[in-house]
Amino acid sequence: MIQVHDQRILAHHRERSAVVYVRQSSPDQVRNNVESRRVQLGLRERAVALGWANPIAIEDDLAITASGFADRPGFQRMLADVTMRRVGLILSFDVSRLSRNSKDWAQLFELCGFFDTLVADLDQIYDLSLPNDRLVLGIKGTVAELELSILKNRMRAGSEAKAARGELRFLVPSGYT
Fold first, then answer.
1. Which of 80, 129, 148, 164 would you label with 112, given CA atoms 20 to 30 Å apart?
2. Could you write out the DSSP letters of every residue in 137-149?
3. Which residues face 148 on adjacent strands?
4. Residue 25 catalytic?
5. Catalytic site residue from 25, 92, 96, 99
6. What is the pLDDT along the chain (177 residues), one digit of tens a residue?
């Protein structure tokens, strides 16, 4: 749990915005996992407890995967705001929700470290200008990327096994003839 009086938060961080980055990977998750979105939006209350009066929620990337090279306008807007020194803190339920590919992780780390923007999840506040914080977030990012790859491989293997048994079923897109 984040300590309310974390030493990493300085006055100049609070002079900028706190951004809560909300994301779910697919339209199905957005429709069926309503509580996940509600919990992520609840991080605005966490930002208020940390000293920000009006945290901003970015929900532009709902139903867009963070893996691969998907166009995520909310993520790009957030990074642009970081480079303009408008963001003092980025909050995410789990930092792995910010990105699931190394390119985006590296870009996020570099910009947040250079422009003095903090990143927080439920566990802690990270200052990307500190080597230990970069290491911890780097490990979390690598694990998230690996986890996604393992899940994809398991799902593909399961589909191939079903297909080999003649049990693979899927819906044909509507309108397909």
1. 148
2. HHHHHHHHHHHHH
3. none
4. yes
5. 25
6. 555 557 999 999 999 999 999 888 778 888 888 888 889 999 999 999 999 999 999 998 888 776 666 688 999 999 999 999 999 999 998 887 787 677 887 888 899 999 999 999 988 999 999 999 999 988 887 887 788 788 888 888 888 888 899 988 888 888 887
